[in-house]
Amino acid sequence: MRYIFLDTETTGLYANQGHRIIEIAAVEIVNRRPTNHSFHFYLNPGREIDPAAQEVHGITLEFLQDKPKFVEIASDFIKFIKNSTLIIHNAPFDIGFINMELGLIEESPIEGVVANIIDTLKMAKDMRPGQRNSLDALCRFYNIDNSQRSLHGALIDAQLLAEVYLAMTRGQENLIIDFQNVKSDIDGEKTSLHQSNLFVLKANDEELKNHEVYLTKMKGEKKLNW
Question: Where are the domains of the chain?
Fold first, then answer.
């Protein structure tokens, strides 16, 4: 399973008011293991950054002046996320901005590029109703070190989100059958499974005796029916 953990930073809160993406990051996890493949760019938005947004991420317009525009990295971004399961914290926010940027360059919405989109904020609210479920709060709850996150940043947030998601779903991998340990006979039926994790409870002497009495009674009933 190929997961892409994604985060963005923006000039403001509302894509429909002309705000733009100024940082985008995506981190790849395959079969619950980091691959060290990532996608990360700062972007020149071509507009001012709201002071309130700048206080959150600390990114200045001066810093972004020589950075590429979204159109210049769009093709590589689409290629990186294609056919993956996209995992985002508060997905509607980031998806709204990404689709706005894609629309400006006449590209299809992101929903047609990826296989699935998972919102970890919704997951967390379902798992921890009534609790704070920000990324920082989830890091604290799952004992994940977020000490480097003095400001919001797309790359570090995507990396932390990957750790949070793996912690939130820990144990689910145990539900997957190891098919390398499933043997088949010539008819294709499964004849044995790896059972090292199974607990076997044996019957005691009294239970075995009662079982024999039950079987004898059943045999007698069958003879009467014949």
Answer: 2-175, 179-225
Collect all residues with Cβ–Cβ distance below 8 Å to 103 and sequence separation of at least 6. 109
Q: What is the DSSP letter of 68?
A: P
pLDDT band at 194 (very low <50, low <70, confident <90, very high): very low
Q: Are 110 and 83 in contact (CB under 8 A)?
A: no
Task: Tell which phi-psi region holds residue 93, choosing left (phi > 0), alpha (psi between -120 and 50) or beta.
Answer: alpha
CATH number for 2-175: choose from 3.30.420.10, 3.40.800.20, 3.40.50.1370, 2.40.10.240. 3.30.420.10
pTM, entire model: 0.74
Only one residue has tokens 């993406």, namely: 21
Q: Which of 57, 152, 194, 211 is an active site residue?
A: 152
DSSP string, 41-63: EE---SSPPPHHHHHHH---HHH
User: Can you tell me the mean pLDDT for 176-194?
Assistant: 33
List the one residue out of 60, 55, 56, 75 whose CA is nearest residue 22.
Answer: 60
Q: How far apart, in whole angstroms, are the C-alpha atoms of residue 146 and residue 148?
A: 5
- Dihedral sign for Cα atoms in the order 125, 129, 134, 138: negative
Q: Tell how strand 183-184 and strand 2-10 pair up.
A: unpaired
- Residue 191: pLDDT over 80: no
Give the span between the Cα atoms of 226 and 221, in whole angstroms: 9
The answer to whether the CB of 42 falls within 8 A of the CB of 15 is: no
For the question of residue 37 being annotated catalytic, the response is no
